[in-house]
Design a protein that fits this description.
Blueprint (H helix, E strand, L loop, with lengths): L5 E4 L5 H8 L2 H6 L10 H15 L3 E6 L5 E11 L4 E8 L8 H15 L5 E7 L3 H9 L3 E12 L2 E10 L5
Parallel strand pairs: 4-5
Antiparallel strand pairs: 1-2, 2-3, 3-4, 5-7, 6-7
Length: 171
């Protein structure tokens, strides 16, 4: 059964929830966020995604339940309109984990990327140690293409990430 949620543009009223999300140790471990996030980082992030919304290069959507409670973020990290390729990401709030929220968010975000961003290829970059996120990608029909070794620096450690993709022809 699908988790009921709605996606709305990340906005000023979500800053407190965003700040709490950015302070979550699991979010810091498995994302490309700076650790620790610098002061005012939630505001900087909102501003960056609002600018991306205006120029069509990125999008941040807040996942809310039926009662308007914050569940997490559904992100179009990079939208390449010329190549018709979109990198997606998702972050689930700690209180919402283990209930299928990530699958529901990614499924909806994938539909959005194909329909609204007119993507011909969608991809995810997932830390190889994030087994839960890999299961979400698989459940949403993404195909693991391989591992990008030492793809980015997290603190003093180079991180390996799996590359997952989805095409419109994937069913």
């Amino acid at each position: 059964m699908a988790v009921p949620l709605r996606l709305v543009p990340l906005a000023e009223e979500h800053l407190d929830d965003l700040g709490a999300l950015l302070d979550d140790p699991d979010v810091q471990r498995f994302t490309r966020l700076p650790v620790p996030p610098p002061p005012g980082y939630a505001r900087q992030w909102l501003d960056r995604y609002e600018a991306g919304r205006r120029d069509g290069t990125r999008e941040a959507l807040t996942a809310l339940d039926d009662d308007g409670r914050f569940l997490g973020l559904a992100l179009a990290v990079d939208i390449d309109r010329e190549a018709r390729e979109v990198e997606l990401g998702y972050i689930v709030a700690a209180a919402a984990r283990g209930r299928g929220v990530a699958v529901a968010m990614l499924a909806e975000l994938t539909r959005w990327a194909f329909a609204e961003a007119q993507a011909l290829r969608i991809y995810l970059v997932i830390d190889v140690e994030n087994a839960a996120s890999s299961r979400v990608a698989e459940r949403c029909g993404y195909v693991r293409e391989g591992v990008m070794r030492s793809i980015h620096l997290k603190g003093d450690v180079r991180v390996n990430s799996a590359l997952w993709s989805r095409l419109p022809s994937d069913v």
